[in-house]
C-alpha cells in the first residue's frame, strides 16, 4: 500500500459524484472526459465480474472496430475506480487493447468509493480509506487477478494468443506484481507508476514474487518515493537481475507521487506523457 504521508494535497474531479457515475455506468455510457486524449471509436461497458469473494464492478473498454486485441488489466490508485481511470482505460483501448478497470474495493463498496474533493492533508479524509485498504490482501489479490484475467479472456474481442499486460498506480503497483505471479503464463508485461511498497523487508513483499513471473517490467518511481526509500530501486534491480527478468527501473526527477493521475494536485503532464509513451513501447514489445 501507499503511505498517507507521501500523498500530497487535493484530488479533485468535478465529474465524481455517485449519482452521475452510477447513471452513466448503468447504461454503459461514455463519461464526459476532461482529457484532450478522450478516445474516439472505443466501446465501454459497465460489467460485473464474479470472483471467489463476491461480485466486482468494473468497466470494460475495447476498440469499436471489428477485430481481436491483447488484454490489459489496470489496477487503480488508492482512491479506486473513478472517471480519471476510465479516461486511462479508454485512451489505452484506442491504441488497440481490450482493457478492464475493476473496482479493487468491491468487497466493501461499489465505485466510486470517494466522492467529490478529497484532501490527503485532512485526517478525516484519510480515515475514509482505512476500511477500504483493509479489504485488499495478498491472497485476495491473487484470486481477483485470476478472475479478472479469465473474464478478459472470455471476451470475443480478446486475442488470447497474445500475452496480456497489467499496470498499476500507487497501491496498484504491488497488485500488478501479484497479478503477474497469479497468472504467469498470461502476463507478458507489468508496469508500475509511483507504486508503493514494491520492495520491502516483509515476507509478503511484491518483489519476492518476481521469480514466479514471466513478464517484462517497467517501474516508474516518483521522486519523493525515491527520497523516502532510496534503496528500493536497487533492491528491485537486484531481484530482476537474479530472476533474469527484463526490466526498466527509473526515477522521474521532479515528478512526485501521483504525477500520472490527471486529477491529482501533483499531476505533471510532461512527465505523465513520457511515462505513457514508455508504457505503450513496453506493450508493443511484450504483448
From TrEMBL:
GO molecular function: hydrolase activity
Matches recorded under Pfam families: DLH (PF01738)
Tree of life domain: Bacteria
Domain (Dienelactone hydrolase) ranges: 57-286
Key words, A-Z: Hydrolase
InterPro entries, sorted: AB_hydrolase_fold (IPR029058), Dienelactn_hydro (IPR002925), Dienelactone_hydrolase-like (IPR051049)
PANTHER family for the chain: CARBOXYMETHYLENEBUTENOLIDASE HOMOLOG (PTHR46623:SF10), CARBOXYMETHYLENEBUTENOLIDASE-RELATED (PTHR46623)
Protein name: Dienelactone hydrolase family protein
Amino acid at each position: 500500500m501507499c503511505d498517507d504521508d507521501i500523498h500530497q494535497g487535493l484530488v479533485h474531479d468535478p465529474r465524481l459524484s455517485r449519482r452521475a457515475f452510477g447513471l452513466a455506468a448503468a447504461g454503459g455510457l461514455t463519461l464526459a472526459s476532461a482529457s484532450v486524449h478522450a478516445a474516439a471509436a472505443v466501446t465501454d461497458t459497465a460489467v460485473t465480474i464474479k470472483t471467489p469473494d463476491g461480485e466486482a464492478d468494473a468497466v470494460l473498454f475495447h476498440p469499436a472496430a471489428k477485430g481481436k486485441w491483447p488484454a490489459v488489466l489496470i489496477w487503480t490508485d488508492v482512491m479506486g475506480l473513478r472517471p480519471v481511470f476510465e479516461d486511462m482505460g479508454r485512451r489505452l483501448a484506442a491504441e488497440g487493447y481490450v482493457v478492464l478497470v475493476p473496482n479493487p474495493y468491491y468487497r466493501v463498496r461499489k465505485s466510486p468509493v470517494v466522492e467529490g474533493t478529497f484532501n490527503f492533508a485532512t485526517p478525516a479524509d484519510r480515515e475514509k480509506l482505512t476500511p477500504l485498504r483493509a479489504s485488499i490482501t495478498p491472497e485476495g489479490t491473487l484470486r481477483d487477478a485470476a478472475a479478472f484475467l479469465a473474464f478478459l479472456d472470455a471476451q470475443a474481442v480478446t486475442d488470447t494468443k497474445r500475452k496480456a499486460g497489467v499496470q498499476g498506480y500507487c497501491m496498484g503497483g504491488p497488485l500488478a506484481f501479484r497479478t503477474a505471479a497469479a497468472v504467469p503464463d498470461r502476463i507478458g508485461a507489468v508496469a508500475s507508476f509511483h507504486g508503493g511498497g514494491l520492495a520491502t523487508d516483509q515476507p509478503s513483499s511484491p518483489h519476492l514474487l518476481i521469480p514466479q513471473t514471466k513478464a517484462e517490467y517497467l517501474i516508474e518511481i516518483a521522486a519523493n518515493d525515491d527520497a523516502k526509500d532510496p534503496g528500493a530501486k536497487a533492491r528491485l534491480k537486484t531481484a530482476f537481475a537474479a530472476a533474469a527478468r527484463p526490466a526498466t527501473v527509473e526515477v522521474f526527477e521532479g515528478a512526485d507521487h501521483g504525477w500520472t493521475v490527471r486529477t491529482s494536485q501533483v499531476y505533471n503532464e510532461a512527465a505523465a506523457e513520457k511515462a505513457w509513451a514508455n508504457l505503450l513501447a513496453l506493450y508493443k514489445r511484450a504483448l
